Amino acid sequence: MRISAAGMYDALIKPVKAALLAKIIPIWRPRGPEGAAFKLDDPVPETDGPVPIDLALLSEIMGDDDEAALYQMLALFVDLFPEELAPLDAAIANESPKATRDAAHAAKSSALYAAASTLSAILADIERVAPSRDWAGLTEKVAAARSEFERVVIFVNTTGVGGD
Is 39 part of a structural domain of the chain? Predict the structure, then answer.
């Protein structure tokens, strides 16, 4: 009721239902390339370190193995996640442990829902270390998160999930 009163007609409340998410994403996201499809059992592209997106886990999280829905979820994550890092940068620049912890927590949750386990673990570490006020160390961890997100983008584009 309060959500509608605030004008948020397409708000999704946890736990998110895959069918509802698949319905809402196309409304708010520009269309991706036609024919961009992948199969859950396709070979995984070579990357350094662990696979950045666990497609089977993403399917389990969404409660659906519909390739179009998975494509939309990952394309949305790739588009929106950089916005999750901006508050983290600002919090570290302002040397605010609470804001750093809160921003890392929010970004961690997004990464978890996209099945980006390594990225989520890096952000969990930032969340844990934020009270230490080790700003140089936290800055390095944010750089590691950005690097891992680049791996996610490459993985998504290479699998054809959101690539050109």
Answer: yes
